[in-house]
Design a protein that fits this description.
The complex is a heterodimer of chains A (425) and B (302). Chain A has 425 residues and is mainly α. Chain A contains 16 helices and no strands. Chain A has a single domain, classed as Up-down Bundle (Formate dehydrogenase/DMSO reductase fold), CATH 1.20.1630. In chain A, helix 4 crosses helix 15, helix 7 runs antiparallel to helix 8 and helix 8 crosses helix 9. In chain A, 49% of the residues are buried. Chain B is α/β, with parallel strands linked by helices. Chain B has one domain: 2-Layer Sandwich (Alpha-Beta Plaits). The longest helix of chain B is centred in the N-terminal third of the chain and has 26 residues. Chain B starts with a helix and ends with a strand. Classes of the chains: A mainly alpha (425), B alpha/beta (302). At the A-B interface, helix 3 and helix 7 of A face helix 1, helix 2, helix 6, helix 7 and strand 7 of B.
């Protein structure tokens, strides 16, 4: 970059350059090719349908969902749990890049951090849509509200999720801003935060697992293995999603992706998919070998209970997807084929989505604490809201990826103002 | 051409953004219905424990007015505090209970439950003789009672001394009062339903929609922390009918019981019937192993 020497020497007036940075971010977010507009248009449409469905849910009450007093959490909390894992999974790029000083990983590590941001946005979104009284959200704010800290694990979750969001926003924002100014980022302004964010990533998912594991009245969740399982599956979905995002960004946004960065992620995946399956196996052994009332939920999930088999096909689909993906990842002859590898990544992503979403939340309530068996299926309105939150998250992720890609190619700097040459998707 | 195309593209973007904002507003239009029944005072209302006596009086008056507007019924909503030196407990004689579910019905009416869903704080399980395994119980029995070979287990809030529901609430919207009753501030609850997940006794209920009760069926004798008509989207639970019991009356479920299976009172009063039962019967509690320490006891006579 020819601008580097001039801007680096001159004193920077952040008061004028930072608004220009934000303006540039805004411009980059609304300017692109036809494909970009089409993609964003589709996401916007889905988000609008979701917003409408959510508005209806508030107007007519949560009777618009498939939930009941027996199964009082469902699709929203299932997706919340899953996306928290996705956010934590981003750390599997940060660790090699910063703890092991992997240079290739350093070039693209921001993708992991941006995924964390988008995923936390979705997590907060899923909590908001699950509230019966979103207008009373301020009751959770320290100060005007009354936070039941440290007793309620949910308050811990709010602290760690928001903290993780702020950490990643700071690191990504700082790096992109310095890139915009044409300066070399200073270690002390971001490396300590990155180190904190690594520990923090583990905490977000551990605390989310403790939300469920701490409930003595729900034997299905009341297991010490829950948090380790959460982390293992997070380290499956995170890297799998990032590899796919890297390949898409490489092709559509021109993001330079070193092959070695992808190789490191695949190596991680080869271990984590197995660890995840192993933990599932050890959970299944404990439940089925022991038997008794405490294992009723697991029986409902995998073999059906008292004639109810609503989740059985889903559970076995999930197991099948995860096993098949592991086979592909661990067989060099198969994973050498790129299309098959990518398919395997998508499969394990879907497999964990089932296992950790509906497969985790719903059986916690079936049978209920009085051992009543009331099935649950999400309503159409619930699906609309859910896809709306996903669309919102994907929009955040798409926009931030584009800015990162532009920055990586030197197309995102102060000197270029707000009228860049055409390019990118 | 390059110079011309940029302003035009900007103009197009501004147009797009305006259109988008318009569509977004349209999409959220149903929220208007949600906020219609909401007053600014209601929105800003403080936590029950933070209200000054004057503020509390205003809140009660406002809630009475809102009930009149919405439901067309004149009601009295009072604030009843626990009496020092009183610890409530409940006991239920399983040998006598015939599973008629009159208590369920009495609760439904006393506590102004939603008529459409036929909600109640009590659930009666039909159990098999010789087993206390809840998995073998049936809450949906529909035949003449008592059926041979069965006994009946009514379950409601156990008013635990160590309540998991209170511990998990993120905003302290539910707490235990000094007489042992666990209450909910319906105007502070955010509706996350974490307490419903935490309760081992299926004692908590959520208002999936605004309750519907015909004006003439509304019980006008109401309290802020108990049977006033709950708003949509918040949790509720059995309060041992504190609007009755804190005045020395018996809970509605007890009065409705035709067999006298239910015993209620102040355990700190040595002459109370509940004290006699706890001292002389071999009582037990549900799911003792969870360490919740219920104040609701069961016993068999024979």
């Amino acid at each position: 970059m020819n601008t580097e020497s001039t801007t680096a020497d001159a004193p920077t007036h952040h008061r004028s350059t930072y608004p220009r940075f934000l303006l540039r971010v805004l411009w980059e977010s609304v300017d692109g090719s036809f494909g970009f507009y089409a993609w964003m248009g589709v996401l916007t449409a889905i988000a609008l349908v979701g917003a409408h469905a959510w508005a209806g849910q508030n107007a007519w009450g949560m009777a618009t969902t498939g939930l009941s007093d027996h199964v009082s959490w469902g699709l929203y909390i299932a997706n919340f749990t899953f996306v928290v894992g996705l956010a934590a999974g981003g750390v599997m790029m940060v660790i090699p890049a910063y703890l092991y000083g992997d240079e290739d990983m350093h070039d693209v590590v921001i993708v992991g951090e941006l995924l964390a941001i988008a995923a936390i946005v979705m997590a907060v979104g899923f909590i908001m849509v699950d509230l019966g009284r979103p207008d009373r959200f301020w009751h959770m704010l320290p100060g005007p509200g009354r936070l039941n800290f440290p007793n309620s694990v949910l308050t811990w979750d709010m602290v760690v999720l928001n903290g993780y969001l702020l950490l990643n926003l700071h690191v990504c924002g700082y790096l992109l801003y310095q890139r915009f100014l044409g300066r070399k980022p200073r270690h002390r302004w971001y490396v300590p935060m990155v180190m904190v964010s690594i520990v923090w990533a583990f905490s977000v998912h551990t605390v989310t697992a403790f939300l469920y594991a701490g409930l003595g009245g729900r034997p299905f969740w009341n297991s010490a293995l829950l948090a380790p399982r959460f982390l293992a599956s997070a380290f499956v979905t995170g890297p799998a999603f990032i590899v796919l995002s890297l390949r898409v960004s490489q092709r559509l946004l021109g993001l330079p992706v070193p092959d070695r960065a992808v190789d490191v992620l695949l190596k991680i995946l080869r271990v984590t998919t197995l660890v995840n399956l192993f933990m599932l196996g050890s959970e299944l052994f404990t439940e089925f070998y022991t038997g008794g009332s405490h294992t009723a939920s697991t029986r409902y999930l995998y073999v059906g209970l008292h004639g109810h088999r609503e989740l059985v096909p889903w559970s076995w689909t999930s197991v099948g997807l995860n096993v098949a993906a592991a086979v592909v990842l661990l067989t060099p002859a198969l994973s050498a084929r790129r299309w098959l590898l990518h398919l395997a990544l998508a499969m394990t992503f879907a497999g964990v989505w089932i296992e950790k979403g509906m497969g985790l939340i719903v059986p916690g309530f079936i049978p209920s604490t009085l051992h009543e068996l009331v099935p649950y299926a999400p309503s159409r309105n619930e699906w609309k809201v859910t896809w709306g939150v996903w669309a919102l998250g994907l929009m955040v992720f798409t926009l931030s990826l584009r800015i990162a890609a532009a920055a990586a190619q030197g197309r995102f700097s102060l000197a270029q103002g707000t009228t860049p040459e055409k390019g990118g998707a | 051409m390059a110079e011309n195309s940029v302003p035009r593209r900007v103009a197009l973007k501004v147009l797009g953004a305006t259109l988008g904002a318009g569509v977004f507003a349209q999409a959220l239009a149903p929220l208007k219905q949600f906020t219609e029944g909401m007053s600014l005072q209601g929105f800003l209302q403080k936590h029950y424990k933070e209200l000054s006596p004057r503020e509390l009086r205003e809140v009660l008056r406002r809630l009475e007015e809102e009930t009149e507007q919405r439901y067309g019924a004149e009601v009295t909503i009072r604030d009843l505090r626990p009496t020092p030196g009183v610890q409530f407990a409940y006991a239920l004689n399983l040998s006598v209970c015939i599973g008629c579910r009159r208590c369920v019905e009495a609760c439904h009416h006393e506590n102004n439950h939603d008529r459409a869903s036929h909600n109640s704080y009590i659930r009666v399980l039909e159990m098999e003789q010789g087993s206390l395994d809840l998995e073998r119980g049936d809450a949906n029995y529909d035949h003449a009672v008592p059926a041979p070979g069965k006994f009946y287990l009514p379950v409601q809030c156990q008013q635990c001394e160590n309540p998991p529901c209170v511990r998990v609430c993120p905003v302290e919207a539910t707490w235990q009062e000094s007489d042992g009753i666990v209450v909910v501030d319906y105007n502070w609850c955010i509706g996350c339903r974490y307490c419903e997940a935490a309760c081992p006794y299926h004692a908590r209920r959520f208002n999936w929609r605004a309750p519907e009760v015909p004006a003439r069926e509304i019980n006008p004798d109401q309290a802020y922390l108990s049977n006033r008509i709950r708003p949509q989207g918040v949790m509720e639970k059995c309060t041992f009918c504190l609007h009755r019991t804190r005045e020395g009356r018996m809970p509605a479920c007890l009065e409705a019981c035709p067999t006298g299976a239910r015993v209620f009172g102040n355990v700190l009063d040595p002459s109370s019937e509940i004290r006699w039962v706890l001292e002389h019967k071999r009582v037990f509690v549900l799911k003792e192993e969870l360490g919740t320490r219920p104040r609701f006891f069961y016993f068999f006579d024979e």
